[in-house]
Amino acid sequence: MEKLPATHDVSPAIQDYLKCCYQLADPTGQGVAMVQVAEALRVTAPSVTNMVKRLEDLRLLRRTPHGRLILTVRGEGIALEVIRHHRLLETFLVDTLGMGWGEAHKEAEILEHYISEHLEQLIDSHLANPRRDPHGEPIPRRDGLLPHRTSATLLEAPCNTPLRIVQLRSQDPTMLRYLEETRLHPGARITLREIAPFNGALAVRIGRETRHISRDVAACIFVLQTTGK
Amino acid sequence: MEKLPATHDVSPAIQDYLKCCYQLADPTGQGVAMVQVAEALRVTAPSVTNMVKRLEDLRLLRRTPHGRLILTVRGEGIALEVIRHHRLLETFLVDTLGMGWGEAHKEAEILEHYISEHLEQLIDSHLANPRRDPHGEPIPRRDGLLPHRTSATLLEAPCNTPLRIVQLRSQDPTMLRYLEETRLHPGARITLREIAPFNGALAVRIGRETRHISRDVAACIFVLQTTGK
DNA sequence: CTTGTAAATTAGTCTAGACTAATTTAGTAT
DNA sequence: ATACTAAATTAGTCTAGACTAATTTACAAG
After folding, report:
1. With an 8 Å Cβ cutoff, is A98 touching chain B?
2. pTM
3. Contact A89, A108 (CB under 8 A)
4. B99:A118 CB<8 A
5. SS3 of B29, please?
6. Contacts of B27 (CB under 8 A, 6+ apart)
7. How many Å apart are A194 CA and C14 C1'?
8. Could you give the 3-state DSSP secondary structure of residue A204?
9. In this predicted model, what pLDDT tens digit does every residue of A149-174 receive, in sequence order?
């Protein structure tokens, strides 16, 4: 009797690890380092090693030759379901009960592990099958389909919204080098302040400095909206 | 540093034990036997012994000289808060989301341990501070005050409502013996079907049989309404 | 190539909370 | 009083999931 664990067959702890791996995996698909998981979940490295072993046995994740973590289809399915729970709950708490964003996030972080499939569906229909949570993050559908998160260049990004750089796309190595040096590398969290008119520069806030970059440079920088998470 | 545990400082398991003790304690205040708790929570006797020790250390319950369990004020406070969570959740799931009673009960049985104080309050106000859950059970208030549940004799009880026998009160031991023999003992769940006129008998359903008892006998049987729990 | 550091692993400990099996306590019936 | 039974306890085991301390692997820099 093989057992194919679904979301409710795995513990909250396992759900957290899977969700974490999913969310740390950037779109380039390189897999996640264990130390990242440890930091994100605020546990120690041995705890991660230990759990990863179990997750491999459960066929919920695999490891690259370099030891990085990649979810299996099944693991990703569970991660998506947990995220679906989270975002539905957040939306519900904010929209229906008027809870504040910060609190709704914390509450959802817990409840996401405990609501039944049926409650999930009831919340979903009560909200008329929302596509996005209050932060604008897409809500995975029940079948695991994720409404496409539009990764776009900085030029198309909205102002004053938290962004994360997901990719630098350019033929020109000096351009990439330049971006690296100015700390505009994948993973960096930035905010677009404004785009000056007449083909002017973009004001980009990174950390507590504001930097100005040309439109040509901005066209290489692909970003995602990343409020909240 | 003494620690006075509140609901969210104790584990779900502890919450379950406290709630269970509270609900098994009949109004006569005799305390609960450990074997009852074991059955109700579907755990073994040693598990109960073990947990009871911990609860005593936490000053959440005491034991009578006969070894029966009695919640302390603090323990009862936690039990009441868990029950408040349960009944608010049930009400919310049924009234706001249209969930069925049975399912709402199961869902609440889990979520009662995980909602925050703040969410509890939001649900409470969303429902306009309801006094009773869908089963008619009173919802404890935040300060722990429980709208009084009226224990009365069978003669005063409503028909066709699930009841639980909480006490047999009589001077006559043969009467008590008689009741025991007919399985009308404290804890038994019964329903009153009808009271025949002209000082006639009461039709009482117990299990799947219907039994007829005189008014004199009925006057000894104290019952509570106990839909659901 | 060696060396220094970051990442990962191993080995062992701890806690909560369940379990079984065996034993003891207590209360009832003869 | 004795014996039977029900309730409780003791002792020991198990699992999940964390931890520390010590060690090993792996990779980048001189």
Report:
1. yes
2. 0.72
3. yes
4. yes
5. coil
6. B151, B166, B167, B224
7. 54
8. strand
9. 566 788 877 778 788 886 777 767 67
